[in-house]
Amino acid sequence: MTGAQEYWLYGLRIRSEVDLPELPLASPGAAPDVVISVGTVEAPGPGSDIQLLPDGAMFEVQGTARYSIHHGTAIVVDSAAGAPARNVRLFLLGSAMGMLIHQRRLLPLHANTIMVGGKAIVIMGHSGAGKSTLAALFHDLGSTVLGDDVCVVRVDGDRPTASAGLPRLRLWKNALEATGRDHAFYPLSYTGEEGFDKFDVTLDQQPPPQGEVELAAIYDLEKGEKLTIKPLHGVEAAEAVIANTYRGDYVALVGNSRGHWEDCVRLVQRTPVLRLERPWDLSRSAQVAEKILEHAVSMVEQTQDQSSI
After folding, report:
1. Tens digits of per-residue pLDDT, 91-115?
2. Phi/psi at 3 (nearest 5 deg)?
3. Rounded to whole angstroms, what are the CA distances from 92 to 19, 77, 165?
4. Is it true that domain 107-307 has CATH number 3.40.50.300?
5. For residues 309 and 304, what is the distance between their CA atoms, to the nearest angstrom?
């Protein structure tokens, strides 16, 4: 494919005609797992936001691009005239890649992932719960950010694993400044929308591993009056994972409802899931992050102790 570049994302080798500066480069040569090409995607008919095709699915973002996703191995991008490249990539690496991950029968969580003691710690939660803010604080405390906003989990081995996602953070202006950063040094995540003040934050850290990293714990992030951490078990834990599945409405579209449920159950049977409530007070966020990180370190130590038995 002329003009294509090779990248890594979620443990997959991606060959793309669309420039993806957010992603780490892969050495050329090996066959790609995913091919992203530029082409024509027919306009969708009336109906839902995403439409099924005989061999996949497609959706359109008005004024930005149309995307078609096939077999868990290919994405075609049809950009609108004059659309900012950053906006096209936002939906390509978000919703389009989310559909492809579901087509591959993997488990994407709406979560940020950090590395602690060589293990992966997942912080999942709804939009606005503060996942990226916590990840920024963990980074500032010395942890490596494995991925922002989406964590792809594999449960087919003895221990569930996570793979490196997007190696940057998206922070609202107030959260950005609360972590001691100046928004003037960072580009907007999305351009053309008045009042939108979310920024892409590149991280000064060693590149995360391209392979899979064993999961030590999953935290379900909620707002509360004080910091509390309690374990979830059984159905309650599985339901928390299901509720935080990235683009969970795609599960039924790809015909994987049963497989998705089984993956969620296997995940919570093998990995501790904890409800994390913490006060929504940016002035205290650094101190709260230190306490959460201490707990995460203890979870990693428990995992290592169990492995040695």
Report:
1. 999 999 999 999 999 999 999 999 9
2. 80, 5
3. 11, 8, 14
4. yes
5. 9
